[in-house]
Amino acid sequence: MPKRAPSTVSTPAAPGRRTIPPLDPQRYGPSMGRPVRAKARVITADLQVEPHSHAWGQLAFSATGVARITAGRSTFIVPPSRAVWIPPHVVHAVTVLEDADMRTVYVHQQGGEVGPQVPAAQQAVWRECRVLEVTALMRELVLELARVPAPGRDASGQFPEGKPGERERCLAALILDEMRQAKPVPLGVALPADKRLRALCEAVLNDPGRHTTLAGWAAEVGASPRTVARLFRDELQTSFVQWRQQVLLAKALSLSARKRPMSHIAAELGYASASAFTAMVTRSVGMPPSRFFALGQ
């Protein structure tokens, strides 16, 4: 049963945004008889979906637009070429950065299993949130499955499971196979529990180019650079520079999805040249941005 629940996810509505509940998750809930369900929802950039969780696994991506999904202790910026896997019972929230046509795939999990029907020995990686590439085939399969009509409430107020047709069964099987074959992408920004550090991290996420040094960001939260550096090590086991690079990478991916030229992306993120930006991306993901941004498109 899906539920709204408190968690480490903390996403107060930003100025100009209002929160909305998830769209009828029970209506689209998967089951043993219908293990894969999909739904579509257009969410405008003035909205964010409040924190909630499900008993099933979830794969979320945007057919168009860009969304930010915060799940557990991490946040992910999701353009159309990427998707976020969210394991069962992990509380998550969605903030739309650019009007998004969201697609959500729900995957039934039973007996403690996690993932798209994979052997027990392969389930460890599916117990954590992860970013996956969305191939053209995956995108079209999900778009088609989302067109399958969802049941209405019966006389008791419940949503009857119904029996899937042959086309729905085939789409579901292919989606699970595509998920198993999907390549993971080293994206995702860890979020801290400490309130001061969380405020700083949220500020960086909202406008990563506003300051280029730790001192500039530390001043915003009234802390010394030394204190903030220690909090990053203690809370996130990383340095501010390494953490901010992940933010910049996610932001760059979002800008690339909008077809911005590489030189414009580098400038917007505060890099003096496109070559300096290229070097950062290559160090982070092991490939130049031209190749990394093209994956999944």
Structure description:
The chain has 297 residues and is α+β, with helices and mostly antiparallel strands. The chain contains 9 helices and 12 strands. It has helices at residues 136-145, 166-181, 195-206, 214-220, 225-236, 240-257, 262-268, 274-285, 289-294; strands at residues 18-20, 36-43, 47-52, 57-62, 66-71, 74-78, 82-86, 92-98, 100-107, 130-133, 184-185, 189-190. A 6-stranded mixed β-sheet has the order 1-3-8-5-6-12. Strands 2-9-4-7-10-11 form a 6-stranded antiparallel β-sheet, with helices on one face. Strand 5 and strand 6 form a beta hairpin. The longest helix is centred in the C-terminal third of the chain and has 18 residues, at 240-257. The protein is globular, with a radius of gyration of 20 Å.
Q: What share of residues is helical?
A: 25-40%
Main β-sheet: number of strands, strand sense, barrel status?
Answer: 6 strands, mixed
Could you say which overall geometry the principal axes of the C-alpha atoms support? Answer: globular
Structural class: alpha+beta
Defining traits:
single chain; 297 residues; alpha+beta; 21% strand
Provide a concise account of the structure shown.
By secondary structure, this protein is an alpha+beta fold.
Describe how the helices and strands are arranged.
Blueprint: E1 18-20, E2 36-43, E3 47-52, E4 57-62, E5 66-71, E6 74-78, E7 82-86, E8 92-98, E9 100-107, E10 130-133, H1 136-145, H2 166-181, E11 184-185, E12 189-190, H3 195-206, H4 214-220, H5 225-236, H6 240-257, H7 262-268, H8 274-285, H9 289-294
Parallel strand pairs: 1-3
Antiparallel strand pairs: 2-9, 3-8, 4-7, 4-9, 5-6, 5-8, 6-12, 7-10, 10-11
Helix pairs in contact: 1-2, 7-8
